[in-house]
């Protein structure tokens, strides 16, 4: 048996799931902001190169791959937990 209570693994999985939702959601909002900014004419005369626009443009470039990696980690952790629980129930 492990020394951790059974809720510790679920808490970590929940935290990872919220991180995935937050990072991917924020990246999608940034992507939509770029689309709306382009439609509103903010990109004219190098408008995307000043203010907060460089960060908004970079957020989906880093956020979406990070979200993908977090999803993979979450799936591996969930699979390991289920395998461990199945072994314990078998014994």
UniProtKB/TrEMBL annotation:
<keyword id="KW-0812">Transmembrane</keyword>
<feature type="transmembrane region" description="Helical">
    <location>
        <begin position="52"/>
        <end position="77"/>
    </location>
</feature>
<protein>
    <recommendedName>
        <fullName>Multidrug ABC transporter ATPase</fullName>
    </recommendedName>
</protein>
<keyword id="KW-1133">Transmembrane helix</keyword>
<feature type="transmembrane region" description="Helical">
    <location>
        <begin position="15"/>
        <end position="40"/>
    </location>
</feature>
<keyword id="KW-0472">Membrane</keyword>
């Amino acid at each position: 048996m492990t020394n951790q209570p059974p809720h510790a693994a679920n808490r970590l999985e929940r935290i990872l799931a919220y991180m995935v939702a937050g990072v991917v959601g924020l990246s999608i909002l940034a992507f939509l902001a770029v689309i709306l900014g382009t439609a509103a004419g903010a990109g004219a005369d190098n408008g995307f190169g000043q203010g907060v626009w460089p960060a908004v443009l970079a957020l989906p470039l880093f956020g979406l791959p990070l979200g993908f990696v977090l999803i993979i980690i979450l799936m591996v952790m969930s699979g390991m937990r289920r395998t461990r629980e199945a072994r314990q129930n078998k014994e």
